[in-house]
Amino acid sequence: MTRSLVTIIAMPKPFRGHIGIIQRNAISSWTKLFPRPDIFLFGEEFGTAEIAAELQIGHLRNIHRNELGTPLLDDLFKRAKETTDTPLLCYVNSDIILLQSFQEAIAAVHEHFPQFLAVTHRWEIDLPKPLDFKSDQRLHLGLLPRGVPGHHTAIDLFVFSRDMYVDVPSLLIGRAWFDQWLIKDALVHGLPVVDMTKVARAIHQKHDYAHISGGQQGAYSGEEAQRNLNIYGGVPHAFTLLNATHELLPDRTIAVLRYRREKFHIQQWLWRNFVQRTASLRKRLGLIRSQAAQ
């Protein structure tokens, strides 16, 4: 039997309504990867124990939480390291579908670096119904609804060497900035941050934020988000996917990334000043055809 290279760890929300459907989709997709990764769900949220038993995956309870009941990242990582023995750990949000390309990507990065953090851009899809995992057909992007690329500040998947993140602060899971802190800490310690997007994306099933007090605004700018920002330190969005130091290419080679953030901001400036601001003028001059004419 092929030994697993990675253990996937996740902290699901309660399995109710649409969130329950998309979390089942996501977690079921992880069990279909080959070789099958070790998988542990954490927490006592409604339905977690039942789906862990159904899919025959690990389940750990009693993660430390703050006074509002929000789970803490430091205890999650500590428990994960105590419980697992794979060379790599993967923290992933429970609404993220993983395809076989994920396994191929992390194996390729692992061949190049003894220690690393691997991340990837999201692919945003709307999926209101359960996926059918009963057929023998392997899940691939063509079987999913059409989607669009996610923003570089949205980071839902982290693959890292198990001996990293020794001194994790009490960041709050599911609130802004804990994800970007993970990138910052890897860079502070001089470790490669590898973007796997050209080989493997994180398939994000879009959802609302009804499970968080204050909704999406609460998740990103509420009191708990501010606590995370204080720990994160510095300027918001200072450490995102634009700060990756390396990139995994389709031929399994690794390329060094230089001036990625600077190039992105130059492109954005050019777009705003020479495309968006001149759109009305170009339309009056007949340089932009209407969709009907096309």
Write a brief caption for the model:
With 294 residues, the chain is of the alpha/beta class. The protein has 9 helices and 13 strands. It is globular.
Question: Could you explain the architecture of this structure?
Answer:
By secondary structure, the chain is an alpha/beta fold. The protein has nine helices and 13 strands. The strands form two sheets. A nine-stranded mixed sheet has the order 3-2-1-4-9-6-10-12-13, sandwiched between helices. A hairpin with a 5-residue loop joins strand 12 (246-248) and strand 13 (254-256). The longest helix has 17 residues, at 260-276. The protein is globular and about 65 Å long. The mean pLDDT is 88.
The backbone outline, from C-alpha atoms, is globular
- Uncertain runs are none
- End-to-end separation in angstroms reads 56 Å
Classification by helices and strands: alpha/beta
Give helix and strand order, one letter per element, not per position: EHEHEHEEHEEEEHEEHHEEHH
Number-wise, the strands total 13
Helix content: 25-40%
Count of runs of 4 or more consecutive helical residues: 9
Query: What's the mean pLDDT score?
Result: 88
**What strand order characterises the main sheet?**
3-2-1-4-9-6-10-12-13
| Portion in strands | 15-25%
Largest sheet, if any? 9 strands, mixed
* Radius of gyration (Å): 20 Å
